[in-house]
């Protein structure tokens, strides 16, 4: 029986243990330590964001963003339904309502052509999600936001090291959240960051991240003692996690390059299948640089998707489906609302398969996944 190929295998550069030992020697295990400050500075340098704040997760970063926008019951935030749950929960926990808009057929990103019709007097913000590390049409979205006086919060959980015409994802809107979960390109197990591109929000973001205190100002010497000044929670990332993350950030380019190599092998291998109408490959718009966060294929029918997943499981290949659309979920129906028919979301979510893709994936493993897809679609009864 062949070895299992997991969907994901967290990557280690080899430097993580040494940096964690350094963090232990430093004696700073909580947040805002030397490694955390180093990571934040490098993220700011890499992206050009005005301030990067490490957080315990991308979810935490999104929750800080929702607080910065002062969302309250009656407010609305436009977002795709085809996203991870915390894009919506960060809004819903304030009492505001997620408004689900359909996605584009090509990139699976929020369809910017449908946003204007979804805007109401209650709309406070737009939350585009950069699916699979491919940017939304941020030019159109930012224009709409400016016309209607709306904030923009980018869910760039999957977007580290990707850009549009050289401008990094996460640097278009007022705020952005990125993820360093173990399934992401750069990881520290659990972690994330808030990018603050609107400088007027920096000081309050630091307060909200630090349990509602002005601790950050105190350590800069701006105040003589720190105290409770606002709402907030404990969102600061431990310096042990930051030490692991620093090793990943140092190797960000080579990690991205390796993932892109694997992604391209998949893309090239399935060209003939796409030409025959047996599957559809990802679409990357001109001028958009993706980060190979994932490689997915879209099968002609939901039944064929389910057959593909079954055969892959039988052959110990960790192919998986992705999000259940939020507008169809129990909480989504209760706490949010769809705008119009989300036909593209319903259709594509039922036909999509994600293939294993991780930095340490070998060429032999990649070839085995490719061979499995080819063999099954050429002879659907195939089981290895």
Describe the structure.
This protein is of the alpha/beta class and 384 residues long. It is 39% helix and 13% strand. The chain is built from 15 helices and 13 strands. The protein has helices spanning 16-26, 34-47, 58-68, 85-92, 115-118, 138-148, 202-209, 215-219, 239-250, 252-269, 271-275, 302-314, 330-335, 343-349, 363-378, and strands spanning 51-55, 76-80, 97-101, 123-126, 151-155, 163-164, 167-168, 175-179, 192-196, 288-289, 295-298, 337-338, 352-355. It has an eight-stranded mixed sheet with strand order 1-9-8-5-4-2-3-12, sandwiched between helices. A three-stranded antiparallel sheet has the order 7-6-10, with no helix packed on it. A two-stranded antiparallel ribbon has the order 11-13. Helix 1 packs antiparallel against helix 9, helix 2 packs parallel to helix 9 and helix 3 (58-68) packs parallel to helix 4 (85-92). The chain is globular. The model has no long low-confidence stretch (mean pLDDT 96).
